Amino acid sequence: MDYIRDLEQAMSKDRVTTNETIIEEHSFDESHHTPSRPTVVVFPEHSEEVRKIVQIASQYEVPVIPYGAGSSLEGQVIPCDGGITVDFSLMNKILEVREQDLLVKVEPGVTRLQLNKELKKYGLFFTVDPGADATLGGMAATNASGTTSVKYGIMRDQVRDLEVVLADGSIIHTGNLAEKSSSGFHLNSFFVGSEGTLGLFTELTLKVHGIPEHKVAARAVFPSIEQAVSAVVSILHAGIPIARCELVDESSVKHVNQYSDTNYMEAPTLFLEFHGNQSGLQEDVEFTKELVKEQGCQEIIFETDSKAAHQLWESRHNLAYAFIHSYPGKKMILTDVSLPISELTGAILYAQEEMKDMDMVGAILGHVGDGNFHTILMIDKENKEEVEKADLYNEKLVKYALARGGTCTGEHGVGIGKKKYQRLEFGLAYDLMVKMKQTLDPKCILNPGKIVDRY
């Protein structure tokens, strides 16, 4: 193909490949969505090469799909129409640590754990923790969040500036190094969460934080999910600066024990973590004990030993793998909705009741401190009835959340799976999003088929 020849001329030929194995590796992500193969995979080393790639794609009107670690959960990196997958794994340099400004400048292929290993030398850390060792470019593209967002905010809150290659090959910056600005449109927010549909990120300037002086982790066990969520509301209303607040249901704890060789009580449980100085943390811990006791907490265990605390959070992060390991041959579907805190208890109870009524295998978990929760569903992808039932269940949760002022996704993003709910969620504003996309990408070459319909 002519555009592959042009790509080979624009870059080193060994970084442009149609190798069957590499093509197959870039046809899917961690989601349950149907794989689709790119035509060619390219591995740029700097932003000028990304510019050339996009210019060639524009000339031939070929789709361009950015690819980080492939850990997305709604099919964001699946090439629906073939085309060029741009793998950013070679653009993985930490360019600058501005210690005094609490900023870091990185290339998009830098991963979360890679960055935190480097920042530790400075007594700093990057807060957004989605569980997977995702790339920072991919995390910005999907507006990732995770376990620590209740205290530190989501990915959008950490982005100070982006270097973006637009559909015509031009390169822009969306922000600056200042702590705040009242100048112009807020372009950082415009591009964060755009999933590669508006431009390709080639450099990110991110906010970082000082490593807390002390951390305390805890498990609080309750007779029911309703009491566990009520305890979360009490903690938030009391103003306790909790850093992590995760809910796992009885089924989740059972699978954690089997997979991680733990011996936690198998009941609805909150995994908690507090960050701060020693004296302040002690006050927070004592206050939390009182609050959860009022909500019927059966036991609360504080893990002051770093090894035990690490095991607690490792078991939470490995929960998805615990389910996959327990149901060989089945595929995991992970739903994701977010609601106002006042609506959270009803939504989780609804999700629990529907899962039981529909006779589905799964569990409920989530970052309940910020109103975001998930359900794990294990299904046989070859069983049409199970697939349809899972889709119906997901749709019920989304419609429940939207009817109560929530959103169809709190952190997984839109991709392929949640695109069908965008008009329902945004109404006439959906048409505005389409116009914005058409203005920046008139040929619809940037990750087509994601977030908005093709045109």
How would you describe what is shown here?
It is a single chain. This protein folds into four domains: 2-89, Uridine Diphospho-n-acetylenolpyruvylglucosamine Reductase, domain 2 (2-Layer Sandwich); 94-210, Uridine Diphospho-n-acetylenolpyruvylglucosamine Reductase, domain 3, CATH 3.30.465; 214-320, Alpha-Beta Plaits, CATH 3.30.70.2190; 328-419, Alpha-Beta Plaits (2-Layer Sandwich). Helix content is 37%, strand content 20%. The chain contains 17 helices and 19 strands. Strand 18 and strand 19 form a beta hairpin. The longest helix has 20 residues, at 384-403. The mean pLDDT is 95.
Draw up the topology in text.
Layout: H1 2-10, E1 16-17, H2 20-25, E2 40-42, H3 47-60, E3 64-67, E4 84-87, E5 94-98, E6 103-106, H4 112-119, E7 124-125, H5 136-142, H6 149-152, H7 155-158, E8 159-165, E9 171-173, H8 187-191, E10 200-207, E11 209-210, E12 214-221, H9 225-237, E13 242-248, H10 250-260, E14 269-276, H11 278-294, E15 299-303, H12 306-317, H13 319-326, E16 331-334, E17 337-338, H14 344-357, E18 362-367, E19 372-379, H15 384-403, H16 422-426, H17 429-440
Parallel strand pairs: 2-4, 3-4
Antiparallel strand pairs: 1-2, 5-6, 6-10, 7-11, 8-9, 8-10, 12-14, 12-15, 13-14, 13-18, 16-19, 17-19, 18-19
Helix tally?
17
How many β strands by DSSP?
A: 19
Radius of gyration: 22 Å
CATH class of the largest domain: Alpha Beta
Overall pLDDT level:
95
